[in-house]
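I hope you will forgive my troubling you with a question about protein structure. The matter concerns a single protein, recorded as an amino acid sequence and a row of backbone structure tokens. Please examine both parts with care and let me know of anything in them that strikes you as inconsistent. Here, with my thanks, is the record as I have it:
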Amino acid sequence: MANSDQIIHKEDEILRKYDDLLRKQDEILRKQDDIVGMRHQIVGVADQLNQVSGTVGKLDKRLGNVTTVLDSILNEVKAQRHTIRSIEDRVKGLEHGIERIGG
């Protein structure tokens, strides 16, 4: 009978260890599911980053175009300013000439 009790005790011990292994297996499977979910999230974030990168590239190109236009406008303003100074100098010269003639 003692041998029978030992066998039953050993079977109980084996069943407990088997239950522990099943619990650990379930835990591992849950963690694997979590990892798969995280991978899907990472792929989603990567897709969004690619979209943002494309948008930034387009905005950068537009900014370059705007900068080119602004540089062109600035150069035109500088040229007009030079023309205005030249006209002002001519007017001053005429005023000085008129003063000499009139005076």
About this structure: The helical segments are 2-102. The longest helix spans residues 2-102.
